[in-house]
Amino acid sequence: MKNSSIEPKREKKNYTIKEISEEFNIHQDTLRNWEKNGIIVPLRVGDRKDRRYTEKHIEIIKAQLGNKLTLSQLEKFLWKSADILRGKIDSGDYKKYIFGLLFFKRISDVWDEEYEKLLKEFGDDSIARADYNHKFQVPKDCRWKIIEEQAENIGQKLNEVFDKLSNANSPKLDKIFDDLDFANKD
Hints:
With 186 residues, this protein is mainly alpha-helical. The chain is 54% helix and 3% strand. The longest helix has 32 residues, at 91-122.
């Protein structure tokens, strides 16, 4: 946010959505979404019901810009996004796949982070790759970076990845992914 030129204009009581957008470098759609979600509800004036923002609204905007996303807000946002993407599919039908993919992404990222740290610390690739230096074993052909480049038969490839991850981390991951079938189109 730039040094607010709205501040000295105290004599003006109402600001347009364009003025607020430019002043705080916020897209007008963001302001509309905040209104839709009840975060900030501007006044509506004139025959066209144009939005007008007061000093009180400006304070709310400043507070909103200073806020960081909470875990609860992130969860709500992700679930709302998932609702849009899945349409009318029951959450029980897809959440195991989402959680499976999130887990896979995380252990792959952790393995990469551990590898980089060990390589930097010891300067030896064999030490950095050694199984005993990693919380989870992620076979080379099962790393997220490799899988995200896979375009064909991704469902079958993911099934193979989860089988290999389970086997490489037995007994920790035994039966965890047994009910996942990414190749099932139903």
